């Protein structure tokens, strides 16, 4: 009689332990997935902010001071297929100002190298 009780008690204990273990596992999986989701959201939000800041800076940063050509226009020209300084200058009008391109040509070259190497 006592043995039977002990067996049943052990079985019930094993079952309860298993249930607790399963619950813990599920909770941990939930927490991990929500953590990774939050991380992804934060990263994507960070990326959005970074891209927005870069866009604003590109709009307001003048590459060619003489002609007031913004970096955004230079980047667009490169994205549209201008792969040399001359092509970028022809597409944007940069380099045709008072300094004859002495100030903006190195910046255009730098942007070309940076954008074409991505
Ligand atoms: S800065 Fe571009 S022509 Fe002078």
From TrEMBL:
BFD-like [2Fe-2S]-binding domain boundaries: 63-113
The residues the entry assigns to the signal sequence are none
Annotated region (Disordered) at 1-50
What InterPro entries would the database entry show? Answer: BFD-like_2Fe2S-bd_dom, BFD-like_2Fe2S-bd_dom_sf
Q: What name does UniProt use for this protein?
A: BFD-like [2Fe-2S] binding domain-containing protein
Its domain of life reads: Bacteria
Query: What lineage is this protein's organism placed in?
Result: Bacteria, Bacillati, Bacillota, Clostridia, Eubacteriales
């Amino acid at each position: 009689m006592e043995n039977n009780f002990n067996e049943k008690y052990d079985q019930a204990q094993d079952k309860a332990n298993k249930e607790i273990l399963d619950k813990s596992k599920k909770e941990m999986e939930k927490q991990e997935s929500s953590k990774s989701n939050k991380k992804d959201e934060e990263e994507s939000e960070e990326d959005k902010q970074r891209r927005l800041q870069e866009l604003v800076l590109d709009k307001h940063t003048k590459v060619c001071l003489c002609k007031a050509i913004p970096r955004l226009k230079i980047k667009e020209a490169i994205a549209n297929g201008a792969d040399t300084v001359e092509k970028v200058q022809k597409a944007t009008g940069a380099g045709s100002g008072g300094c004859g391109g002495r100030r903006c040509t190195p910046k255009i070259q730098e942007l070309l190298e940076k954008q074409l190497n991505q």
